Amino acid sequence: MNANDLNLIISSLILLVAGMGMTFVFLIVLVWCTNISSKVTAHFSHLLPDPTPKKAPAKAAAKAPAAATNASDDGELIAVISAAIQHRLGK
């Protein structure tokens, strides 16, 4: 290994450390700016209130038959689950 190769390696290591250092500093500044922005927007959030969600029209008549069929399905579902458990336990 000659002196030229050694100088090239040293230069590349200096460039590596400088690049990593600049990236680290940039990320620190980015976090700092994000925190400041969060505090500023929280301070002025009362100027732009959150929109209230629109309520969907209720369909009570359509839900009533579904509730009646669910009650009969629940009994059948309980019977199926019980049979599966009994089969699994070997009884």
Automatic annotation (TrEMBL):
Drop me one GO molecular function for this one.
sodium ion transmembrane transporter activity
Tell me, what is an example of a GO biological process annotation in this record? sodium ion export across plasma membrane
Pfam name, any one? OAD_gamma
Q: Which residue spans adopt a coiled-coil conformation according to this UniProt entry?
A: none
Keywords recorded for this protein, A-Z = Cell membrane, Membrane, Transmembrane, Transmembrane helix
GO CC terms of this entry? plasma membrane
Q: What is its main location?
A: membrane
Where in or outside the cell it occurs: the entry states:
Cell membrane
Task: Give the transmembrane region(s).
Answer: 6-33
List, alphabetically, the InterPro entries matched.
Answer: Na_pump_deCOase (IPR005899)
Looking up NCBIfam families in the UniProt record yields: oadG_fam
Supply the name of the protein: Sodium pump decarboxylase gamma subunit
Q: What is the lineage of its organism?
A: Bacteria, Pseudomonadati, Lentisphaerota, Oligosphaeria, Oligosphaerales
